Fold this protein.
Amino acid sequence: MFDFTADDATKYLDLYIIPFAINLVVAIIIFVIGKMVVNILVNLVGKLLGRASYDPMLVNFLKSIVKAVLMLFVIIAALGRLGIDTTSLIAILGAAGLAIGLSLQGSLQNFAAGVMLLVFKPFKSGNFVDAGGAMGTVKSIGIFTTVMNTPDNKEIIVPNGAIYGGNITNFSAKDTRRVDMVFGIGYGDDLKKAKAVLEEMVMADERILKDPAPQVAVSELGDSSVNFVVRPWVNASDYWGVMFDFTEAVKIRFDAEGISIPFPQMDVHVHKNAE
């Protein structure tokens, strides 16, 4: 029969219980202090990113990633103090991370592109852009996707990878834009009169900026018309209004001035052979 004496109990206590209790207390202290240090560092990162005027969504996301990574080190350090072999744990976590990364390759690409969009800000919410094969007003920029509204009020969700991997045209980036319009007159019409009418109309529209100066010039001797380019500068918010209103006004004014606006036509000549 096994005889467990007081000396054995004392020896067992000294060899196992007390060292384990000490290691447990130290591990708890490491975890508590480590967690406090992690919170301090995460708040510091948040303040630094906030001062850099980064998007709040990006700041919160990066803070979560930093906290998760730092807490992982704290937990590994605490487990190591308890005598647990963390080498195999790190290897398992590394292999799991690699497997997850390979399976979510497309999502990670969109994530990386989302971070770059939020950091470098080629556009912001409310801008009208052409990006990722879609054109519309940006409603929100997420970590994985960007949401746009088209002019006819359709919602488009575009992966960030498609946006950052291609050309981005931001129509709202500048305060002013140039309106490019082309108007044709007949070869028999008075060229100087037509140009004077267009210049007068440009100067009369209060929405058209004086600086940079608008341009009215003959651009092409076409197949059936002499073409003018009219290129006024306007505030970005007036772009479409000026284009639509000016085009309509030119037709009405040309009709009143007797200036023709030719349309493509083909003359067919039939030759009858003499018998």
Notes: Residues 265 and 271 are 20 Å apart (CA to CA).
